[in-house]
Amino acid sequence: MNEDGTQFDTTDQPPAGQEGHQLLPQLVAHLREHRTKLRQEWATRIQEAHLLEAMTPQEMATETTSVYDNYVEVLETGSVEALQSYARDLSERIIPRGVETQEVVGIVLLLRDVLARSLFEKYQRDFPLLNRVLDAYEPAANRIANTVAVSFVDERERVIRQQQDAIRELSTPVLPVRSRLLILPIIGVLDSVRARQLTEQLLAGIRTHRAKVVVIDITGAPDVNETVANHLVRTVDASRLMGASVIITGLSPKIAETLVTIGVDLSKMNTIGDLQGGLEEAERLLGYTVTREDGATES
Amino acid sequence: MSSGPALVSILRQGPYLVASVHTALDDSEMVRFQHDLVEQIGQHRSRGVIIDVAALDVLDSFGSRTLSNIAAMSRLRGAITVIVGIQPEVAFAMVELGMSAGPVATALDLEEGLDFLDNRVDRGGSTAGLA
Fold this sequence. Notes:
The structure holds two protein chains of two kinds.
Chain A: H1 17-33, H2 35-48, H3 57-77, H4 81-94, H5 101-123, H6 127-171, E1 175-178, E2 181-187, H7 192-209, E3 213-220, H8 226-241, E4 245-249, H9 253-262, E5 270-272, H10 275-286
Parallel strand pairs in A: 2-3, 3-4, 4-5
Antiparallel strand pairs in A: 1-2
Helix pairs in contact in A: 1-3, 1-6, 2-3, 2-5, 3-4, 4-6, 5-6, 7-8
Chain B: E1 8-13, E2 16-21, H1 27-44, E3 48-52, H2 61-76, E4 80-84, H3 88-96, E5 105-107, H4 110-124
Parallel strand pairs in B: 2-3, 3-4, 4-5
Antiparallel strand pairs in B: 1-2
Helix pairs in contact in B: 1-2
């Protein structure tokens, strides 16, 4: 079979050799000629299979036309680059709407079948010729299906990676509030990767800012499991090794219950109800006194 | 026991001893360091000891146990010990392996360690006064 990388070229197939070159233009001409009818048939089969239901009928019509034209173009030129970028662009548009990989693969396979049927119909009287036509058509069609599926999955993975990076960057800021005082607000679910990264950033932050006191605020963390709780304990120990004391604030009633129930030893940790209290305690440890000016008005 | 030049310099700074560990020590070198230091506390009548490990990028379990032993021994000889300069990676590795410096005081760097000792020793009321 013909499975070369970028161009499908039938010259290395001795029997179909010269003919392959003539067959493909013939085939493309046939598909162009019956474009409306075949596209319509394809769209109907997509509907019957309940695929791409996230799209409106108009969008369906536009997209199926584009896919059809791209498909025929690949058959004609043998180059999948245009199709690849179209597939990527299409994926970018439909991924946010919850289109699944199987749907995308499904519609491309449907198109392949619809076109194959029309070829059967056209060449049914000449079986050897039909065979050669299919020899030329099948590898190309399979490569198209492959390209579209891979582009879709690539795009989806790119989106996932991008989101992971965004979460990673956003998640653990180490904020200096006063000289030698850091705040580390934890927002969102802590998994062990994030917890580890948080410790690394905190320790680096302690050295950079020469921190003596760190307030870790976990008001924004919905839940804490045993692994993460133990990691917090280790973070506190590691910070202490670097000469900084840690105050943990914002333990919700639920988290407090969980921690006591699973028996994590928090007796060594300095915990205070809320961030305000934590800051006040930190200021006390560092010897700051904050006074309100006389005559200042409540805002 | 190893002999030859010491791998740890122990310097007197007023009422304190400052020990800087310059390179990773093997177990026998660590023990030698412990002997030297505990002995010098008496010689200089020191009230505080600072052990600077900033140059170390690894601290094994024997090392950290010896450090906490030194702190306990110094305590018995009348000096408070503070370990300074533990690198972030070292701190992280130590807690990952379940080690800690026990009840030994720690500080960020030499300067912080001196501050810490100044506070603690002054509060004790009987500074050696060898400034």
